[in-house]
Every structure is written in structure tokens, then in C-alpha cells.
Amino acid sequence: MENRTDKNSYTIIFAIAMVLIVGSLLAFTAASLKPTISENERMEKQQNILYAMGVNDNDEGSATFISTDKVAGEFSKYIKKQIVIENGSATENDQAYLIDVKKEQTKAKSGGTRSLPLFIGEKDGKTFYIAPIRGKGLWDAIWAYVAMDENMVVQGAYFDHKGETPGLGANIKQRFFMDDFIGEHLLDESGNFAGITVAKGNADPKNLDKTDNEVDAIAGATITGDGVTAMIRKDLKLYWPYFKTLKK
Amino acid sequence: MGLLSKKDANLILDPLADNNPITIQVLGICSALAITAELKASIVMAVSVLFVLGIGNVVISLMRNIIPSKIRIIVQLVVVAALVIIVDQVLKAYAYELSKTLSVFVGLIITNCIIMGRFEAFALGNGPWRSFLDGIGNAAGYGLILIIVGFFRELLGSGTLLGFKVLGDPIEKTGLYAIGYENNGFMLLSPMALIVVGIIIWIQRSRNKALIED
Predict the structure, then answer these.
(1) HSE-CB for B105 with a 13 A CA cutoff
(2) Which of A238, B44, B169, B184 is deepest in the core (most CB within 10 A)?
(3) Residues of chain B contacting A168 with CB distance shorter than 8 Å
(4) Are the beta carbons of B69 and A5 separated by less than 8 Å?
(5) CB of B191 within 8 Å of any CB in chain A?
(6) Distance between CA B188 and CA A125 in Å, rounded?
């Protein structure tokens, strides 16, 4: 039963035509939507940073950002200063929030200098230092914005992920996990950087002990939790020298 | 069902029970394991697959006479991948919040064997309207099992449904937890999804002996 569509020539022509049509369709979609998408991503960054310092529309249980139409105004209202730390010296840069942490990590890996953005916000007379960090979860990237005071005590955190398992690792962006970090110390009692460990069986599910450098892990999300621990230890530690200069 | 002939109606009704993609055809098991730890994720996945399979089946059916048989699987994969990625991009631009919820599912949808299975088994040999019904029916059958599994895993594993603490608070020890009930953490892990699917298969086959193969 030989018919037209079984011929090799037809198959090859069909394949070429398909690749051309689908390829240009995807390229066209991606290119024409790109400005809108990057604008969304820019606003999301601002929302994340503001969320970490407690400027959000949270109600009882859910994590809600302030709306996109207000975010630009609120961002310039609350974020007083944006700095970039390079080799221990801080310079002001009002576009610091656009720095891609992923690119900076790659730069550091290949021997370059990593630029560390830090956002300094003020709310109700309190100063917040908000740092973006990035690491690996189980399947893909995870990242966070952590707001601290000058003693590196966490004031708020926003976690997010690219592809963690829904219902398990994906729960790092749920309130019950993120809120555990509030008040938690990043330094140990003698003032050295200890980070915060996402610990199983720390026997403190309500997270009342704020100086144990531990928060309660999510059941079934061990590797994502370990990723959070590693990300905090590695990336937030880079900011420690800057916080030491604040105390002088 | 005045709109549909009996044969057409069966295209939708059969996959819900006696020809269910998960429990009878045993397709789509990987995603059934991966995303049923909570009910909400199950529902999102069910709706997404309903959408993709319904439209994908129609597209493949319209193309069925021009697809070269030698590369038909590749063509099917390209169609479903292009469809999903375009939808993902459009959502990213115009419904950013929604797209963030769905982004995890994109990869799972493209590689879902039910979608490829229905393209191959049905849409390549039938007209668009019947293919559409078949797509909707199979996706609904798949979604039904996903939602049942998600319901039990979330209820017994976390003591919540759609995030609401229906059994009380395990930390404050209220509700059921006050009398010593504990969540079964094992329910959150993938093996339990397989066991729940197994129990559904068992119940289904013990009620309808015709489904049992020798």
C-alpha cells in the first residue's frame, strides 16, 4: 500500500516545511512578546524585594504581592538605596535590582568578580537590608530575597523556584515555610556566620527558638530544603563582610 | 445527550470508567505520581491536559492525511510542544501569575504519554469532531483519577484539602489531632500514589470482571 505520504521525498519536504513553519512561529511569538515578558519579570523582582521587607498584601494565610500597578511607586518609596558590592567596596547604583544573580554566579565560577546587589529599604523607622540569593533545588533553580537588619537577623524572606515538585518542594514559597525565617539569626552566639539550616527533626515545629540557626523542614522535600540551606550558607555569607563594616 | 449520537457520547464516557487511560490503559502514570501530593496541583494538571489534548487531537486530526507515516511521532511531538510553548509564552506576557503556577507543568504535559497515545491511536484515524470528543473524554478520565489520588494524598498526608486544614491543626493539636491522630508523611511520597492507583484499579476490576485480563 504505497501512497503519496510514504515517499522519502515527501517526508523530507514535509519535515523541512514543518521545521520552518513551527520555528518561525515560535520565534515570532517569543520576539513579539519579549518586551511584555521582561516588563513582567522586572515588576516581579520589585514585588519580591518589597515582599521580603514586609510590603505586601498578605492576608491570613496566603502570600500576596502588592499589585503591579502600584509596585513601581512603592518601590521608589520604600527602597532608599541600592548598592553593588564588589571586592568589599560598595557603590550606589539605582539599577542594582536588575543585576542577574545567575550571571554573577557564573562569572565568579570562571574567576571573575561577582557583583553583589543589596537593597536598603526603610519602613516604620526600621532599616532593612535585602539580598537576592540563588541556588539549586531538586529539579531546577531556587532563589530567594532575604531581608535582614544590621545584625543579620532575618526580617522577612521570599522564596521561589523554577520547577520543584508541586505539593512538596514547591511549598518553599508558602507562608508556613517563609514565615519561619522571620526573626531567625544568621550569626551564631559568638557572632560568626552560621546560616540557617532547614532541619528535619529540630523538635521546634512552631519555630519558637530563633537563635538555633534552624527552621523546620518540609516533609517530603528534603533535597529542596537542603538546597535552601546551601544557598543561604553560600550566597548570604558573601554579604557578611559588608554587615561587619556596618557595626563600626 | 441530544447533541451527541450514542457512539459519540461513548467517546467521552468510556475513558471515564471502563477504558480509563490510567487504570485500564496504564498510561500517564509518571505525572500521576509526580503532581498528586496536593489536590490543587492535580486539578491544575487535569485542566491543562484537557485543554492541550482537546486542541492537539483536533490539530493532528486535521493534519492526518498529510502527515508522512515514517515521521508521524516526531510530527506529533512537534505539534504538542509548539502548542504548549506558545500558550506558555502568551500566559507569561498576559497572565504572569497564572503562568508561574503552570510553568512546572509544561514539561510534564509535553511528555505525557496519554497525549501522544491519543494522537497515535485516535486522531490519526478519525475526523476532527470525534477526535475532539475523544481528547476531552480521555483527559477527563485522566483528570478524574488524578483528582481522586490528589484528594486522598493531601487529606491523609497533610491533613488539608486545597490548603484548608480540614482535620485541625497538627501543630496546635486541634480537631482530630487532639485525640492523637497523626498525618501519614508516607502519603506525600510517590510510592503512595502508585498504591492509591493500585487500590483504584483493584476496586474497579473487582466490580467489573470483564476488565480482568488473563
Answers:
(1) 27
(2) B44
(3) 37, 188
(4) yes
(5) no
(6) 43
**Which residues in chain A have their CB less than 8 angstroms from residue B41's CB?**
166-167, 170
Q: In chain B, how many domains are there?
A: 1
Contact B171 A206 (CB under 8 A): yes
Chain A residues within 8 A of B183 when measuring between CB atoms: 219
Classify residue B119: in a domain, yes or no. yes
| B99 in a structural domain | yes
H runs (alpha helix) in chain A: 8-52, 68-78, 101-109, 175-178, 222-235, 240-247
Q: What is the pLDDT of residue A223?
A: 92
Q: Are A215 and A198 in contact (CB under 8 A)?
A: yes
Spatial contact of B105 and B91, defined as CB atoms under 8 Å apart = no
| Residue B28: all three cell numbers together | 500517564
pLDDT of residue A60: 72
Place of cell 510542544: B81
Angstrom distance (rounded) from CA B152 to CA B117: 27
Q: How far apart are CA B63 and CA A207, in angstroms?
A: 58
Asked whether residue B171 is domain-assigned, the answer is: yes
Domain spans in chain A, listed from the N-terminal domain onward? 41-247
- DSSP string of B129-166, one letter each residue: HHHHHHHHHHHHHHHHHHHHHHHHHHHHHHS-BTTB-T
Check B92 against A205: CB less than 8 A apart: no
d(CA A86, CA A84): 6
Domain membership of residue B15 (yes or no) is: no
Q: Do A168 and B85 touch (CB under 8 A)?
A: no
In terms of C-beta density within 10 A (0-12 exposed, 13-18 middle, 19 or more buried), how is residue A54 classed?
Answer: middle
Look at residue A159 in the predicted model and tell me its pLDDT.
Answer: 94
How big is chain A, counted in residues?
Answer: 248
Domain that holds residue B172: 23-205
Mean pLDDT, residues A98-105: 88
* Residue whose C-alpha cell reads 491543562 in the numeric block: B48
Q: Are A161 and A140 in contact (CB under 8 A)?
A: yes
Q: In this predicted structure, which of B66-70, B78-82, B84-88, B170-174 has the lowest mean pLDDT?
A: B170-174
Report the DSSP beta bridge partners of residue A86: A89
Q: What is the pLDDT of residues B145-172, one digit of tens each?
A: 999 999 999 888 888 888 788 887 777 7
- Tell me which chain A residues have a C-beta less than 8 angstroms from the C-beta of B32: none
The one-letter amino acid code at B127 reads G
pLDDT of residue A164: 85
Residue B1: pLDDT above 50? no
